[in-house]
Amino acid sequence: MTDGIDVLVHEVGPRDGLQSIQTIFPTEAKIDWIRTEAAAGVPLIQVGSFVPPKLLPQLADTGEVVAACKDIDGLTMTVLVPNLKGAENGMKAGAHMIGQVISVSEAHNQSNVRRSVQESLDDFARIVEHRDSDPAYADIVISGGLATSFGCTISGPVDPADVMRVAEGLVERGAQRLSVADTVGYGNPGQVKDLFTELYRTVGEDFPVGAHFHDTRGLGLANVYAALEAGVREFDASLGGLGGCPYAPGATGNIVTEDMVFLLESMGLRTGVSLDGLVAAREIMERHLGGEPTHGTYITAGPPKGFVPASKAA
Amino acid sequence: MTDGIDVLVHEVGPRDGLQSIQTIFPTEAKIDWIRTEAAAGVPLIQVGSFVPPKLLPQLADTGEVVAACKDIDGLTMTVLVPNLKGAENGMKAGAHMIGQVISVSEAHNQSNVRRSVQESLDDFARIVEHRDSDPAYADIVISGGLATSFGCTISGPVDPADVMRVAEGLVERGAQRLSVADTVGYGNPGQVKDLFTELYRTVGEDFPVGAHFHDTRGLGLANVYAALEAGVREFDASLGGLGGCPYAPGATGNIVTEDMVFLLESMGLRTGVSLDGLVAAREIMERHLGGEPTHGTYITAGPPKGFVPASKAA
C-alpha cells in the first residue's frame, strides 16, 4: 500500500464502462479522461482490454491508450485480457498489471470466453509463464479475477466453495492479486462479509484482494462497506457509474467512483483521491458520451456542510 | 417484535414522501396506497402528520386517513407531530403511535419548529402526560425522533454527545421508542455503527430504536447495513424513494422501501414484506404522482435468478 493511502481506488470506467455502451470514444478523449482522473489522485486505472476488435470495437485502441499514458507519474495502468493472446499483447504494449477474469460459474465462463473454468485456469498459468519468460516483464503484476462470485444470471446462486476453489487455483498458478467480482449485482452485504472473510482464510489475510461490485440492485456501496469490514482495501468503481457487463443480461452499472470515494473519505479512510478532481474528470468523460446515461449522487448533492475528506485532514 | 419478523419496516412515504412534493394526493389515493402496502405485509406505516394545513396542505387530511385505515388488520399507524397540539389531534384521531421529532442541532430545530431543543423536550413531556391523562390512550406509543443526528445543513457536524443528551432527555420524559434520523443524508456507515453502538450503551441494548436514513449521497443502504451490524432492527423507508425534508436544503430522497426490503430479505432477515406486494403498491402510488420523480433499483432489475426471500424461506 502506498504511503498515506488506506484504500486503493481502481477506476474501471475506461474498460468496463466503455465496453458496455454503444458510443466509441476517440482515443484522445480516453487519454484526456485517464490523465484527468490520474491527476485527481486515482492510483489504478483500467485503461482497456486486449480483446479482438471485432468483439469490442470500443476498446480496439487499448494499445495506443497504454502507450500514450505510460508517462503518467504514479499511475498503475491495468488492462483486462480474456486469454494468453490478449495477455501477450498487453505486456508488449506496456501495461503494468494484467488481469484475467474467470467466471466461477461454469455456464457464465462458457458464455463469456467459451472455455471451461479449468481451461481458463490453464490459460492463466500460461499467462504467468509468459510474463516470467521475459525479464523485461518482471515488474508486471498478474491479477486473477473471479467473476460471478456472488451469483450468476445463467445458473443462479454460486457456491462459495467454488469461489475458494478458483481462488486457490489462481494463487497456485501465480496470481499476485485477486479481484472478486459481483459481476451481475446479486451480492448482499452479509454474503460479501462472509465470502471475503472465508477468502482471507483461504489465501492468507495479507494476500492482496480487490472487490468489484455492481449497483444493479442498489447494494453496491453497502457491499463496499461490508467488504471493508472484512478487510478489503482495494475497490473497482466506474466514474459516473458508467458500464455493466455485456455478457450478463440485466446487469446495469458499476458502483460510482465519486460516490465510493465520498464513502471512504467520509469514513476517515484516505484514498488520496480528490473529489473535485473526480468531478472534473467526469465532466470530460460526459462530453463524449453522446447522451449515454450516467449515475451517482455526489455529483448532485455535493459534500455535506463542513465535510473534510480524510485525505485532506491527514 | 412480531413472531417470524426479524426487522420491522416502517413506511414513511405517505408522510415524508408526500410532504416534500407539490402534488396533493386525493385522500382516497392515500388510503388505497396504505391498504395495498399494508397488504404487502408492511407492519408500520406513517400515514401522515398533524401539522397546520397551511404549512403542509399535502397532509391536511391526515385525520381522515387515520380514521379510514383503522380497520386494517395488523397495521400500526404512526403519525408525526411537531408539538403537543398535533399530538392531541393525533391521539383523538386514533393513531397507534405518535412521533415527535426534535432536531439535535439547535439551529435546525429552530428552523423546523421555532423552538429550542429544551423547549421541544418540554413539549415531549407534555405529550406523554396528555397520553397518560386518558385511559383510552393507554395503548398509544410515544416515539421520540432525533433529527440531524449525523449532521446538519445549517450547522454542519453534530456532536454524538448531543445526540446522547437528547436521547436521554426523551427517554427520561417517557419515550418508549427512539427514531434516529440522518435527516439530510450526511451520515456514513462508520459513523452510523459508532453512533448506534453508543446509543445502545446510553439507553440500554433492549430499548426499541429505529433508524431513518436518506440516500442523498448514495449511502442510505450502506448505513442500513451498518445500523444492522450495531443491532438496529427497525428502519424507515419510502416507497420509490419518494420524499426528503422541506427544511433541509439539498436533501433528496428517503431510502427506497423495496430496495431496503430486498437488502434485508437477501441477507436472510425476515421482514414479512412481499416484494411483489411493494411493486403493486408502488404502481398505485405512481398513478397519482403527476410526474414527480421516483427512485430505486429493484423496480428495474427485479430479483436475482433463484432468489428466495428470507420471509418465504422461513
List keywords for this structure.
eight-stranded parallel β-sheet; 314 residues; globular; alpha/beta; homodimer
What does this 3D model show about the protein?
2 copies of one chain form a homodimer. Chain A is an alpha/beta fold. Chain A has one domain: Alpha-Beta Barrel (TIM Barrel), CATH 3.20.20.70. In chain A, 42% of the residues lie in helices and 14% in strands. Chain A has 13 helices and 8 strands. An 8-stranded parallel sheet of chain A has the order 7-6-5-4-3-2-1-8. In chain A, helix 3 links the parallel strand 2 and strand 3 (76-81). In chain A, helix 2 (27-39) crosses helix 3, helix 4 packs parallel to helix 6 and helix 7 packs parallel to helix 8. The longest helix of chain A has 16 residues, at 117-132. The model of chain A is unreliable at 247-251 (pLDDT under 50).
State the low-pLDDT regions of chain A, or none. 247-251
Structural class of chain A: alpha/beta
Strands of the widest sheet of chain A, in order across it, are 7-6-5-4-3-2-1-8
- The multimeric state of the shown protein is homodimer
CATH architectural type of chain A: Alpha-Beta Barrel
Quick structural gist:
Chain A is built from 13 helices and 8 strands. Chain A has helices spanning 13-19, 27-39, 62-69, 84-93, 106-113, 117-132, 160-172, 189-203, 220-230, 257-266, 275-287, 298-301, 310-313; strands spanning 8-11, 44-49, 76-81, 97-103, 141-147, 177-181, 209-212, 234-237. Chain A starts with 7 loop residues before the first strand and ends with a helix.
